[in-house]
Write a structure and sequence with these properties.
InterPro entries: WD40/YVTN_repeat-like_dom_sf (IPR015943). This protein has 350 residues and is mainly beta. It has a domain of 177 residues: Hemopexin. It is built from no helices and 28 strands. It is globular, with a radius of gyration of 20 Å.
């Protein structure tokens, strides 16, 4: 049984929405071990891949669940495809795992030099190639004919991808100071679709994550080039609007435990229970009601202060956030641990 480390972090009075503390909170200095490289939530259960490529499962309280399934290792990634289904990628082999019975069936095989992206509701597997998308079932390739960033159109390893509830695949890219890029593919129509993006190409942030909130899609992006800058962009019917910016010029938070400049927003998540958008940066975890003016800094409330090494130690960069059905926020702390935030206490699973 894995050891749980329960850490009491900064708990803010909920009446102080949008306020930030000038006093440095007490922060944990526990050295963690082990680590995880992927996590998904199915209902109120967590499924994770540890650093050695083995599958693990936990309750939303952080208690480990016994597993009887046998899968080849190392596991590359895992993906939630339905309420009780987990897609497990082991190198080029893809398996479908029933989370209730733990029965495992062989699903598909990826061609060499491809990266799994998603499986749509028609059970078609989509993968990234060196030049575009591949429908693994039909072996048909699709190459984007336009780009938001004139420096490049496509990369063989996207930085983020998400299939939304309309069967549309959102694919993001990160080229550092050369900017980000976005391609959107309608798996129903089997073609790339354009998005209305009003911002200049040079200001398109490298893409870190996506999340779906009601009928809208949100994108977070960030870059460190001299100083941090980041953005959150909302897409409504494929029309983009930048809803939050953070740079050394605007919306930065002058905390003594944070950077005196822009925030690096690593990932975002949506709480259906609260109807709030969450983001993580080197300054902690923030949330805001989805119907507020998100471009205003005061809309965002700090709910969890960072661990002592988060602002400077990239090994503890939070690379993924997901919500369970019982509204627990799960964090993938890169190269380290899983975090479960219950609104009051952060529990770490090393």
């Amino acid at each position: 049984m894995r050891l749980l480390l329960t850490l009491s972090l900064l708990i803010l009075n909920l009446s102080t929405v949008g306020q930030t503390s000038r006093k440095k909170p007490k922060q944990p200095t526990t050295t963690l071990y082990g680590g995880y490289k992927d996590v998904v939530a199915l209902d109120s259960t967590l499924w994770a891949v540890d650093a050695s490529g083995h599958l693990a499962s936990f309750t939303s309280a952080g208690e480990e669940r016994p597993l009887s399934t046998t899968l080849k290792v190392p596991i590359t990634s895992i993906h939630a495809t339905g309420k009780d289904e987990l897609l497990v990628v082991c190198g080029q082999d893809i398996y479908l795992l029933n989370s209730k019975t733990q029965a495992c069936t062989y699903e598909a095989k990826l061609p060499p030099k491809t990266v799994f992206l998603a499986r749509d509701n028609r059970k078609q597997v989509w993968a990234a190639t060196e030049t575009g998308l591949l429908n693994v079932a039909t072996n048909q390739s699709f190459v984007p004919d336009s780009t938001l960033n004139h420096y490049y159109k496509w990369r063989p390893q996207p930085s983020a991808a998400l299939l939304d509830s309309y069967n549309i695949l959102w694919i993001g890219f990160d080229m550092g100071e050369w900017g980000g890029n976005l391609q959107v593919f309608d798996t129903n129509l089997q073609r790339f679709v354009p998005v209305g993006f009003a911002d200049t190409l040079a200001r398109l942030c490298p893409v870190n994550s996506f999340c779906e909130a009601e009928t809208q899609m949100y994108l977070s992006g960030a870059v460190t080039h001299g100083s941090n800058s980041s953005c959150i962009t909302r897409f409504d019917k494929l029309q983009a609007k930048r809803v939050f910016n953070s740079s050394w010029r605007e919306n930065y938070r002058t905390m003594v435990f944070g950077d005196p400049g822009g925030e690096y927003i690593s990932t975002i998540a949506y709480s259906l229970t609260e109807n709030r958008l969450y983001y993580n940066s080197q300054n902690g975890i923030y949330r805001a009601p989805i119907n507020m003016e998100l471009h205003q800094q005061d809309a965002w409330q700090l709910v969890c202060a960072p661990m002592s090494s988060w602002p400077t130690d990239r090994r503890q960069h939070v690379s993924k956030m997901v919500f369970t059905s019982d509204n627990k926020l799960v964090l993938l702390v890169e190269n380290n641990a899983l975090g479960i935030w219950d609104g009051r206490i952060l529990t770490l699973i090393p």
